[in-house]
Amino acid sequence: MNEPTPTRYLAVDPGEKYLGLAVSDPTGRIARPLRVLPHRSQRADAEAIVQVARELGVGAIVVGMATDVEGRPTTLQARRARNLARHLRRLSGLPVVLWDETGTTQAARRVWARTRRRGREHERVDAAAAALLLQSFLNAQHPPPEPDRPPPEDVPWP
Q1: Which domain holds residue 34?
Q2: How far is CA 36 from CA 27, 82, 90, in A?
Q3: Looking at the DSSP assignment, which residues form a beta bridge with residue 24?
Q4: What is the pTM of this model?
């Protein structure tokens, strides 16, 4: 059985003011925060993201899309994420996946608050949120292996 070729991923956590970026390791299993880009326009944002994707040699881009409590895309944020994904597909030619990013920014803020780091917090938080988004996606692509289970007691050994 052939294993799929490892892919490096770039994730984008789009916000109203900033776009958090994260990248995976070359095996496509571990995410890390990368940087933050200031939001300018959908087209300019997409061009900047594609440039980063090319520099890093990624094989796919993951774009965060907010959902409501029932898992449905929220209207305005979903539209923005879909538009950004469309621009990214057209400009890069890479596969672009929309992935639920609900709660990633709040989780990243909690982590940064616990570490009591200050200054340029939005850069750290938005990139960390993108890393949480990407790690969620990567975990879904590569679920952990099933733990070894001992045979049931009533099964005779061969």
Answers
A1: 9-141
A2: 23, 20, 22
A3: 31
A4: 0.78
